[in-house]
Amino acid sequence: MLGAQATAGRDGKLQRKHHALFVRLRDRRDDYLRFVTDPAVPFDNNAAEQTIRMPKLRIKVSGSMRTMTGAEHFAAIRSYTATAIRQGNNMLDALIQAVTGNPWIPATT
């Protein structure tokens, strides 16, 4: 293959990374292109990046989470609201329902 020849046998760190990337793409082609044949698979991982953005920002601003319990509560609330949004619900409405004792529960499939 032309790609294997073009990236193989490199001495520099960057060239080795390029070759490793080529090998992963070649060996796991079906995994990397699954979004083409399966519409349920997203094209990118932007949803995952958005999910971790707020906790990382909070840690950056305050230096850390104060307690493990606080971090767990923060993660649970963020997970709940992210799931509600992905299911097409309004985040504020889901939070109000949860606080008033009638929480929105996602449908199971």
Automatic annotation (TrEMBL):
- Pfam families xref list: DDE_Tnp_IS66
Family annotation (InterPro entries): Transposase-related, Transposase_IS66_central
Q: Which domain of life is it from?
A: Bacteria
Protein name as annotated: Transposase IS66 central domain-containing protein
Give the transmembrane ranges.
none
* All residue ranges annotated as the Transposase IS66 central domain in the record: 14-72
